[in-house]
Amino acid sequence: MTSLRRSPSARAGSPLISDLNLLGLSEPVINASGTFDAIAARRAFGNALLERFPFAAYVTKTVTIAPRQGNPPPRLYELPAGLMNSIGLPNKGLEGFLAEDLPKLAELPVPLIVNVMGNTHDDVSRLVESVGERDEVSALELNVSCPNVKTGLTFGADPREVAGLLDAVRARTGKPLIVKLTPNCASPADVAAAAEQHGADAVSLINTLRGMALHRGEPWLGGGTGGVSGPAVRAIALAQVAEVSARVNLPVIGMGGVQCGRHADDLLRAGADLVAVGTESFRDPLAGERVREELRALRPGRFFVPG
Ligand code: RRO
């Protein structure tokens, strides 16, 4: 099993160089799930995408057991400093993902992290087992934090729910399990601690913050409410990443409103080991590459020290 565990010296080490080599990556910038469609990008840019892939690892959009159409439109609402989405997990379902998407994603020149979500422990167990047994997959991200589905367990807000989920699924794969945390709860750090105690290999945060927009007194989004992302959430992400990193001894993937190298650097200084670019990729598809280059300029030398 690939080890994602933080070495004991990591927290005490230089704040400028992480000694954690998550998934063997040489760079710390990846994408946030659902914000960069690598299959569409390959159609648009052809092999140029492979030669100039903007991220050090690729995280898929969430996969569920059954295919889903997603929420009714409108699905997006632009905010003064961000974006609100109510996408509602449209996807081909597990079988469709394995048959149609995985072979294409396996051609990407970086490790593949598959984000999965289920309504029951059995669903998540099946997803973890079926996806985890594929050689093309380096790690799984458990989405316990989507703000846009009204059915299903609210796994992510309650430490006991996350503990129970991990107890049910941990043994189903030897691959690293990353738990994607919600900011919409009393204490993300308590949830992260439960994830750590019950076998998670890493945590990622933040998912979007639940919000609402009205148009002539009625909810604008088809799903009623949505998830807020972008610059508006950056300060919240920074505070939660700092709190979670101080609490757990697991690798932390930080995200929320990263638009440039300085923002990525801030999250790393707050305690993240990797940084994900999300909403900014909708504005600039090469944002990941730009953030990586800006971060390199801020942190000359190798990012990861070989362990
Ligand atoms: O698809 C979505 O509506 C969605 C998901 Br799965 C998620 O995890 N976070 C988000 O803001 N939107």
Describe this structure in words.
It is a single chain. The chain has 307 residues and is an alpha/beta fold. Helices cover 32% and strands 16% of the residues. The protein has 10 helices and 14 strands. The strands form 3 sheets. It has an 8-stranded parallel β-sheet. A 4-stranded antiparallel β-sheet has the order 3-4-12-9, with no helix packed on it. Helix 4 links the parallel strand 5 and strand 6 (139-143). Helix 8 (261-269) crosses helix 10. The chain is globular. 49% of the residues are buried. The model is unreliable at 5-20 (pLDDT under 50).
The gyration radius over C-alpha positions equals 18 Å
The main β sheet shows up as:
8 strands, parallel
Q: What's the order of the H and E elements? A: EHHEEEHEHEHEHEEEEEHEHEHH
How much β-strand is present in the residues? 15-25%
The chain-level mean pLDDT equals 91
List low-pLDDT spans.
Answer: 5-20
Provide the helix percentage.
Answer: 25-40%
Sheet/helix structural class? alpha/beta
Number of strands: 14
Give the ligands present. Answer: ligand RRO
Give the overall form.
globular
